[in-house]
Amino acid sequence: MIAQMGFRSRAFGLHLLSSAAVMALVMGSLYAGWYRWPGWYLADASRVALVMLVVDVALGPLLTFVIANPRKPRRALARDVAVIVLLQVAALAYGAVSLWNGRPLYYAFSVNCLSLVQAYDIENADAVLGRERNSALAPHWYSLPRWIWAPLPDDPGEAQKIVGSAVTGGSDVTAMPIYYRTFTAGLPALREQLQKVDDIKFFSRNQKTVLKQRMQAAGVPTDQPNALAFTGRAHPLLAVFDPATLQLTATFKFD
């Protein structure tokens, strides 16, 4: 019995170490390239990552511990472990592809807030059009997250069409690279939209209370028009700017 437990423990440990190393490589690459704060939070990537961790780092080695038996023929043991590894690879590939397709590409200021733009937010036709007419700011497969300004077009009819599309769940201007401009060009418009946290409609009264407490703890004034909502797939953040330089100084979450 002791020899059997030792064999299972060694198999479990080796499988766990290998799984954790592969997971760290995949997740570390995605995080370092695209999901650094606030991308990870706004994209709500932790849900996908949790599934990957459960299947690849927890369940896989645990199954190896259960099926490992020194008295089992080596060919049968190798077959069983191969099946487990295959399931792990499938889960890892599914999660990695999901995170890749949802990778943050832009942090966009538009109208009255900041928003996260993920890869799957941009239709292929809009991406192609952007590369043709606005190549400097258009997305490519290798693009890393960038800060941009996405104003509505000057044509009132076109602007109204985009607003109507966004209201009904269609594409917003933040997903249309043809209209992107540099973030610096949008700073005057951003300055006009800065609000006190109490005046921002994206947050409830209780959420504003928590945000103000966290701002005060960080030494950030709560009675100045210095903030915007920062939206994504998860709960919105509060983005705080220096009113003088318009540099982003902090982001706060209420949960």
Layout of helices and strands:
Blueprint: H1 2-35, H2 39-42, H3 46-67, H4 74-101, E1 104-110, E2 113-118, H5 124-133, E3 146-149, H6 156-167, E4 181-182, H7 187-193, H8 205-217, E5 227-231, E6 237-241, E7 248-252
Parallel strand pairs: 1-3, 2-5
Antiparallel strand pairs: 1-2, 3-4, 5-6, 6-7
Helix pairs in contact: 1-3, 1-4, 3-4
* Beta content: 5-15%
| Low-confidence regions | none
Q: What is the CA–CA distance across the termini?
A: 48 Å
Number of domains: 3
Number of strands: 7
Helix amount:
40-55%
| Rg result | 24 Å
The helix-strand sequence is HHHHEEHEHEHHEEE
Structural class: alpha/beta
Describe this structure in words.
Helices cover 51% and strands 13% of the residues. It contains 8 helices and 7 strands, in the order ααααββαβαβααβββ. Strands 4-3-1-2-5-6-7 form a 7-stranded mixed beta sheet.
Structural key phrases:
255 residues; alpha/beta; 3 domains; seven-stranded mixed beta sheet; 8 helices; 7 strands
Outline of the structure:
This protein is an alpha/beta fold. The chain is 51% helix and 13% strand.
